[in-house]
Amino acid sequence: MTMPACAATSGSCHYGPAPQLVLETGNTHAPVVEIWRCTACGHGVTRPEMADVSPLYAGRESEDFLARDAGWVEALKNFVVRRLARGLLAFANPAPRVIADFGTGNGMLARALAAEAGADATIHALDFFDEPPAPMDNVRYMGFAEAARTLSGKVDLLTCFHVLEHDDDSDAMLQRLLAYLRPGGTLVVEVPNVDCVWNGWFGKACANWYAPFHRVHFTRRSLRALFERHDLTILREEDICGPTFALSLAALLGVAPNSLLFAVAAGLRPAQWIAEKVTRRPSALRIIARKS
């Protein structure tokens, strides 16, 4: 078993004699996986490893692409993401001219960044596929291979939301992200929190596990240590109250995510926010850093 660097020691993570969880995924590429956690820093990994995770996303069939959103659900998410985009743009100083959303999924964040950044900025949406997921007004969509050739060292602001956890080698993945940034460029990463308070409530159904797609499971400590290993200047760390409930309820009930479950989750949102604040065990972690 490959051991990532431990956030608590000077060596590699150390795992106990048995995994924390064994999950049946129903996915043909990884039907059964194990979640192992370091006994020192708590950082988690999904095993067996996958040399190439791209088959998991063939056809944009996973929930990562949010293809089911429609009507009032889509409208509400667009409103929230527009607010998010305004906040992210404020971290890049001076105002970014070249912006990229890595692992754009359905392109919602990229479109919001384009709407908020103004005419002087160029927005790029990057993902596995050569074709965009939907019409991308005012956004330049490109696959990862093309993006690596054309955007290397040019990006002022790079966003990467719920993507870093989808690769077995976090250090290599972060290096890949940093290659896009110019010196002084800003990187914003958000990942699920393995210490989320809801892991205990929902158990194996908790959306934070999301096996086999989530390959690593960050703690606050292990995420910070990753960024520090790559000599990034950390500007801010944030606890994020993410959309855990709807996806977790769907997994618990054995149904596809739908607008009814989203409505239930929205109604429970105040209670979710309070619980995460009181326990300091948020559903997601966000870190904003600057490249030297």
Automatic annotation (TrEMBL):
It comes from the Bacteria. Pfam families: Methyltransf_23. GO terms for molecular function: methyltransferase activity. Signal peptide: none annotated. InterPro entries: SAM-dependent_MTases_sf. The keyword NADP does not apply. GO terms for biological process: methylation. Keywords: Methyltransferase, Transferase. The keyword Repeat does not apply. This is Class I SAM-dependent methyltransferase.
